[in-house]
Structures are given as structure tokens and as C-alpha cells.
Amino acid sequence: MKTIFRLFIAVLVSVSASSCGAWLEVEPQNDITLEDYWKSEKDIRLALNQCYSQLRGQVNTLFLWGDLRGDFVVDGASNHGDYLDYERVLRLEILDNNSLSKWGGIYKVINYANNVIKYAPGVRSSDLTLGKKELNAYLSEAYFLRSLSYFYLVRTFKDVPLQLEPTDTDDVNVVLPKSTEEEVLAQIVTDLEWAERYIPRRYADPDLNRGFATQAAVQALLADVYLWMEDYDKCIEKCDKIINRSDYVLVEFWRDIFAEGNTIESIFELPYDVARGEKSPLKNVFIKDGAEVLSASTEVGELFTDRDIRKINTLILREGEDNYTIVKPLLVSNVEDANWIVYRYAEVLLMKAEALVQKDQYFEAQLILEEIRERAELDVRVIPSNREVAEDIILEERGMELAFEGKRWFDLLRMAKRNNYQRKEKLIDLMTKGVDPGSVPKWRSLLTDPMSHYMPIHRDELLSNPNLTQNPYYD
């Protein structure tokens, strides 16, 4: 009996320099057997396109995992029942039935990438026009997408199943036990270091250079991973490979990064185009039935000075209230056209500055901040020769530059866990700001457990996979 491989084939329908960039249209196809598929180079490209399409569908998850537990997001005015799980996270009342602890959508990206990694090499036996160089380039894209997915998973859950083989259907039934964070990170590094050697530096069609993985995208992800792993020399090395190029720079007008999309500052972003049926789901995270679901906190508003050109393009103070309306990710005229930026040049600069501070190279870090702050029309901010103070300055600058880009919680957690959780108390201070004052002592005690900083595994996953064990904080 033939094994059925159901693959929703993603078709690259159009590319236009005047659009948000390359977009993909997904069209369901009939069941395809493995014997019939993986015959030509086109089959590899279509399978990779499905990886990108699936990742674009996870944008809300990427934002919420990266921002909701931080100090920049608060409850909005909406009381819509669909968003009660957001409120519970904000109140620290997270249970194993919270929808935000579901990881199936991300594992589907991984499964699609695993299919490419396993089956693409066999295409060369039937398509003699497919060269080794081209094959390795395709494999590098798959390794990048799988690695990016796993990096989100380890930062959100810590220990997760390391699935490296594809399943035969769209239903991703992960039945492996958890691998440690260290094991998953080691696999990510191995895959990305290989991919960096073979992935295209640029594509012949310039419109593909932001929406598809390139060498710079791999290097940016590697820099981020090495920063998380506290390997500062390697982080700086990967950042410098991007900085020393001439094709990534800070755009002159900061607003254009989000209002226009696909700027020369962007390294990797997920594009959408309403005209071709590709709608960004991100709007639903912020607004439902005309009411705000999530708002910006007083804390993030107070980070900015009124002179900072980033402020008005990030949030707007609501009249008569302390909180702000979030505007940054939705600056385009049609919010469903809003691209989601995963990495951009400014973040590469800030990752390098953060790594330099950890090596006590304060003046070099300050020079980088001057470049970022000059564009924001701000004065130079002196970084003193004090690691903790310098670390806070970098964290604040990242907050202003990257607010609501799905970075803040990961930034706070990375800062806190550094050097064996040396700054755990700062993280706990920020996490307890939004809870009822009377319960702060209880939460401060509970949050001393580092496993409380990660999400629980959803109970559905535990029921379907007997090899899994729950995060002990939630037992």
C-alpha cells in the first residue's frame, strides 16, 4: 500500500517591486504519493514555499510568545471571550489549557522543512538538471526555517521534542520525549553553520531578498542564538559579517520600515498582500470588533522622550488614560498588508552592542548606539564602564527600537538568565508590575523558580504523546 503524503502545494504566483515583496498563494491539491512527488526541482521549490506559507500563518503566535509576558503589553478595552487566555497570561495565571501553550502550528513548519531535508536530495536522481549547488541552497532554506522554529520553541518552552524526521501526513504527531534546551540549540547551530555556507547571498530577483532566507538571514539568526547561549565572540562575528556588507543599512525614515515594508534595512520578513489573498492575521491581536484587545503599557511610553521620532510611530497616548494605543506593527494603510519583520539591520547592531558590553567593550558599544540614536534624532547616551548599567541601557534602547516586534519578553529573559540568573530579581520586578498588589509577595516567591519563566506544555500534547512530561512548575 502506498504511503500517502498530503502536501498543500504553495504556488509562487507573482512578484512585484511595487508590492510588499514576494508573496505566496496556497492552493489545496489532491493527495500525492511519495512515488509521484519529489521528481523535479520545481517540487522542492513548491515544498519550501509551503514552509514559508505555514510560518506566515503563525505570526500571531510569534508576536504573543515574544511580547505578551513582557512589560510593554497590557490588557486593552475589549472583553471578547476569545482573548481570555491573553488576560490570564498577563495576570500570570497560566494553566496547561491556555491556547498560547499550543505548539502544533510551529511543529507543522518543522515538519514541512523536514520533508524537504529528507526527500529533496533524491530529486537529483530524476532531475539531472538539478546541480549540487542548487540542492544545497534549497536545503539551507529548510534548515533555516526549521532552526528559526526551534529557536522560538526553546525560548518559549525550554525543553521540547527535537523532531528531525518528517511525518507522512499534515497531522504532526510528535511522539518523542523532550530534548534539553542545550541539545536543541546544538542542533540549531549545526544546521545554521552548514546553511551559512550554501544559502544564496542574494537572489537574482531583488524582491525575493527579504521574504526568503538569505545568507544574512542565517547569520542574523545565528547571532541571536549565540547571544542567547552567551557566546559573545561568535555573536559579534556573525553580526560583523552583515555589518561589513554594503547592502544592509539603516533607512533614513524610521516609519518606512513598517509602512513600506521590504526596505534596505530588512533582513528577513514575512510578506503579505491583500490583493492576492495574503492577509496578515496580526490585526486580530490588537483590535476586535472595534475595541483594543492589547494596549501599550505606561512603562513603554515612559521609555521614549517626545523628541524621539520612533515614539509617535510606535504608540499613541489615549486621552485621559495612562496606557497607549499600539500603532507600530500596523502603520500600513491596510493593516492586513502589514509585513512581519523577523530580523532587520538595527537589531543586528544592537545584538553586537549587547555582546560588546558583556566583553566590557563599552566605548565600542556606545558608538553603535550613537548610530541608532542619531536616526531617532536623539543625543548621544554615554555608556559607563559598569556592566549592569550598560546592560540596562542596551535593553532600553532595544525596547525603543524593537517594541512590539515580538522581542521584549525574550530580551528580558535573556538578560535575567545570563551568568546563572544573576539578574533574576529584575525580571521578577517587571513580571509582577501588572498583578494585583496584594498578590505580589505570592508571585515573587513563585517566580523565583526559573521554570516559571517558560510556558507549560498544553494538556492536549501530553494526552497525545505519552513520552512527554510537563514543565515541573506547572505540575
Q: How does this model look, in words?
A:
The protein is mainly alpha-helical and 475 residues long. The chain has a single domain, classed as Serine Threonine Protein Phosphatase 5, Tetratricopeptide repeat (Alpha Horseshoe), CATH 1.25.40. 45% of the residues lie in helices and 8% in strands. It has a two-stranded antiparallel ribbon. The protein has a two-stranded antiparallel sheet with strand order 2-3. A two-stranded antiparallel sheet has the order 5-9. Strand 2 and strand 3 form a beta hairpin. It is globular. It is found in: Cell outer membrane. InterPro entries: SusD-like_N (IPR033985), SusD_RagB_dom (IPR012944), TPR-like_helical_dom_sf (IPR011990). It comes from Fulvitalea axinellae. Its main location: membrane. Pfam families: SusD-like_3, SusD_RagB.
Q: What is the number of strand segments? A: 12
Q: Using the coordinates above, name the CATH class.
A: Mainly Alpha
* Category by helix and strand content: mainly alpha
C-alpha Rg, in Å?
22 Å
Unreliable sequence segments: 1-31
Task: Set out the fold topology.
Elements: E1 4-5, E2 10-14, E3 23-26, E4 32-33, H1 41-56, H2 59-67, E5 73-75, H3 84-90, H4 104-119, H5 132-157, H6 181-198, H7 215-228, H8 232-243, H9 256-259, E6 266-270, H10 283-286, E7 287-288, E8 291-292, E9 294-296, H11 298-303, H12 309-312, E10 315-317, E11 324-326, E12 340-344, H13 345-358, H14 362-375, H15 387-402, H16 408-421, H17 424-431, H18 440-446, H19 459-464
Antiparallel strand pairs: 1-4, 2-3, 5-9, 6-12, 7-8, 10-11
